[in-house]
Specification:
The protein is α/β, with parallel strands linked by helices. It has 2 domains: 123 residues, Response regulator (Rossmann fold); 109 residues, OB fold (Dihydrolipoamide Acetyltransferase, E2P). It has 7 helices and 16 strands. The strands form 4 sheets. The chain has a 5-stranded parallel beta sheet with strand order 2-1-3-4-5, sandwiched between helices. A 5-stranded antiparallel beta sheet has the order 11-10-9-13-12. The radius of gyration is 22 Å and the shape is elongated. The termini are far apart.
């Protein structure tokens, strides 16, 4: 986790404040700026499709305040409030903000808050992250307060369900449920064995029984290959096809 990059978004309706925080983020090696927004509505639309670790968020903004916006965020997105008003401090901690920077703040104050966020996010990701073996023959996943050993060759497919993943195994009618994002899982799985074919599915390539049009059949389950993932899937099919 020493090389952990924390993805972040800045939201502030004051251009000078927006640019100041952007400069601080850019000079902080472990922060990765994904977007800066002048209002919460734009930020909300971006975060819907782009998971973010950390939000630097102003409180007093038109249309939607920072406090209101913070209550709508995914639970894995944490907040550091940046505001000129100290009367919101108690309210900010009620919404579990990681820190509260009172404007004007300097880089030292910003860095202290960012380091606090890095410590917290690192701990959370350690807890959520599946422990994978170096050989990628098996993995351990946390399920119902236990660490279960999953042999990768037994996996039929992974199904994403909001913040959870269902792991469907051979000869097991019920899936194993674990708290983890499909994106994080995809980064760790061996590409030669598994392929993401849909926003909600990663399939075991060796367990594909049939391909019919744009659908994969595994253990009587039909999984549609979405347009986004079709090129890579077709590449796999072409490499493994024998045409007479």
């Amino acid at each position: 986790m020493n090389n952990l990059k924390i993805t972040c978004v800045i939201v502030d309706d004051e251009p000078m404040a927006l640019n100041l925080v952007e400069g601080y983020v850019v000079k902080t090696p472990f922060l990765e700026l994904k977007k800066k927004c002048s209002n919460a509505i734009v930020a909300m639309e971006f975060i819907k499709n782009n998971p973010i670790d950390l939000l630097f968020l102003d409180i007093q903004m038109p249309d939607l305040t920072g406090l209101e916006f913070s209550k709508m965020l995914p639970k894995d997105t944490r907040v550091i409030f940046t505001t000129a008003f100290d009367q919101y401090a108690i309210e900010s901690f009620k919404v579990e903000a990681l820190d509260y920077l009172l404007k004007p703040f300097d880089y030292a104050e910003f860095l202290a808050a960012a380091n606090k966020a890095r410590t917290w996010i690192s701990l959370v990701k350690r807890k959520q992250q599946t422990i994978f073996s170096k050989e990628k023959e098996f993995l351990f996943v946390k399920s119902e307060y236990k660490q279960l050993r999953i042999v990768l060759s037994d996996v039929l497919y992974f199904e994403g369900l909001k913040d959870y993943i269902k792991i469907w195994l051979k000869d097991n009618p019920k899936p194993i449920l674990t708290l983890m994002s499909l994106k994080s899982l995809q980064e760790e799985l061996p590409e030669t064995q598994f392929l993401r074919v849909h926003k909600s599915f990663i399939v075991s390539l060796k367990n594909i029984e049939m391909i019919e049009r744009s659908q994969i059949i595994i253990n009587d389950k039909r999984i549609t290959v979405s347009e986004q993932y079709k090129p890579k899937f077709l590449e796999f099919v072409n490499k493994n096809s024998f045409n007479t």
